[in-house]
Specification:
The protein has 468 residues and is an alpha+beta fold. The protein is built from 14 helices and 23 strands. Helix content is 35%, strand content 27%. α2 packs across α6. It is found in: Cytoplasm. This is Proline--tRNA ligase.
């Protein structure tokens, strides 16, 4: 397999690009920084969407859709927001062969346009909370693109909510952070994320607080996998999102926004992939069991079809590979690259002995298994390997994380992994110094590992790392 993919230890970025190409997950688009997501990659994104959408709806939010084009004047209403996004904006100045009276921005995010309609739809405290989410594409003109991680156009969900009080807004932003984002990443993607507070320097433009889920990738770098923001009343005042209180006064709402994107696909690859390709956690996998005919004849095709049907009846997402006109070795390599959690190989020799071979992608084990026991063996493997991938990623993070006491030690440690250092030993000046050396403060944590309300709390720990 080393001939198919560059080994991770030899060149991790090249391995990443090789895997995406060889597993047929995506291609570069015709415009620099864009991507084409191929069916194999999009199937994984659809599973992420379905799992995330269910969690968002369980938290009470409803899906809606807002325009791709946003009047430039909308962004200018919230000064910090437009300043933060200005370098990344794509602006349309002509349409229908004529210069537009006002330029329109291709949405980089939708706080402004959704704020305009929140102001229209909210009148009374009875209209609150207003909990919205949209699945959409956004454009941020990326100078250093990398497929799935940083592209000029990407897919995501963005939630936007309005609340009567600051405490309600904070509680909801954290509910999404933990019940939707952290739960999905840990229990479905199998990525053990650290959940914390961003510093003011790393905060979302226009927010009063940004909470993040940070995962460690296979090379020890960090990847921000999702963020949830308290926006205070900044956008409410800019767009007059106000309501009549129960006491009869007029109050501005408190708003939040939160998002995850196709960056999670890049994180999945870099957190779980190995030198043989992708490894997809079973709960996420579009195909959990891949039944393969090694060689046709002697009842093999019929037996394989029956196993496929039995697995499907047991609730397993299953596919049958009966392409016997393609060499089995080539098909097995492709299955490894795609990361199917379990393969069930059916050939004349094993079938004559009443067996099929159950192959587990996580550890590469191959077990001849009585045909009658295959369904049970597959179900057990799927459950065990979901946990195994998480535990392996957690062990990797722990082995590459060190506790230090000074900024210099933290910057040095960030060359190979993560550093945990007292925030008081870093501070604003130290953060700027670290940034100058390519190291960022990924998040802040309390001593017990919980998420702080603000960075001025005493005894906070900072996680410093190099990041994608």
């Amino acid at each position: 397999m080393a001939r198919v993919l560059t080994p991770r230890a030899e060149d991790f970025p090249r391995w990443y690009q090789d895997l995406i190409a060889k597993a047929k997950l995506a291609d570069n688009g015709p415009v620099r920084g864009t991507m084409v997501i191929r069916p194999a990659g999009y199937a994984i994104w659809e599973r992420m969407q379905a799992e995330m959408d269910a969690r968002i709806k369980a938290a009470g939010a409803e899906n809606a859709y807002f325009p791709l084009f946003i009047p430039e004047s909308y962004l200018k209403r919230e000064a910090e927001h437009v300043e933060g996004f200005s370098p990344e904006l794509a602006v349309v100045t002509h349409g229908g062969g004529k210069q537009l009276a006002e330029p329109v921005v291709v949405r980089p995010t939708s706080e402004t346009v959704i704020g305009e309609f929140m102001a229209k739809w909210i009148d009374s405290y009875r209209d609150l909370p207003l909990l919205l989410n949209q699945w959409a594409n956004v454009v941020r003109w990326e100078l250093r693109p990398r497929v799935f991680l940083r592209t000029s156009e990407f897919l995501w969900q963005e939630g936007h909510t309005a609340h009567a009080t600051r405490s309600d807004a904070r509680a909801y932003a954290r509910r999404i952070l933990h019940e939707a984002y952290e739960d999905l990443m840990v229990n479905v993607l199998g990525i053990p994320v650290v959940v914390g507070l961003k510093t003011a320097r790393e905060r979302f433009a226009g927010a009063t607080a940004t909470y993040t889920c940070e995962g460690m990738m296979g090379d020890g770098k960090a990847l921000q996998l999702g963020t949830s923001h308290e926006l205070g009343q900044n956008f409410a005042k800019a767009f007059d999102i106000s309501y009549s209180s129960a006491e009869g006064g007029r109050e501005h709402a408190w708003t939040t926004s939160w998002g995850t994107s196709t960056r999670m696909l890049g994180g999945l690859i870099m957190a779980h992939g190995d030198d043989n390709g992708l490894r997809v956690p079973p709960r996420l996998a579009p195909v959990q069991a891949y039944v393969m005919i090694v060689k046709d004849g002697e009842g093999v095709g019929e037996a394989a079809a029956k196993l496929r049907d039995a697995l499907r009846d047991a609730g397993v997402r299953v596919a049958l590979d009966d392409r016997v006109d393609t060499a089995f070795g080539r098909r097995a390599v492709d299955a490894e690259l795609r990361g199917y959690p379990v393969r069930v190989e059916v050939g004349p020799r094993d079938l004559a002995a009443g067996n099929a071979v159950v192959v587990r992608r996580t550890n590469g084990s191959k077990a001849p298994t009585p045909v009658a026991d295959v369904v049970g063996a597959v179900l057990a493997a799927l459950e065990a390997d979901q946990q195994a991938l998480h535990d392996e990623a957690l062990a990797h993070r722990r082995s590459r994380t060190v506790e230090v006491s000074t900024l210099a030690e933290a910057i040095e440690a960030a060359a190979t992994g993560w550093a945990m250092v007292p925030w008081s030993a870093v501070g604003l000046a130290g953060e700027a110094e670290a940034n100058g050396q390519g190291v960022t403060v990924r998040c802040l944590l309390r001593a017990d590992g919980s998420v702080p309300d603000h960075e001025d709390e005493p005894d906070l720990t900072a996680i410093l790392a190099r990041a994608y």
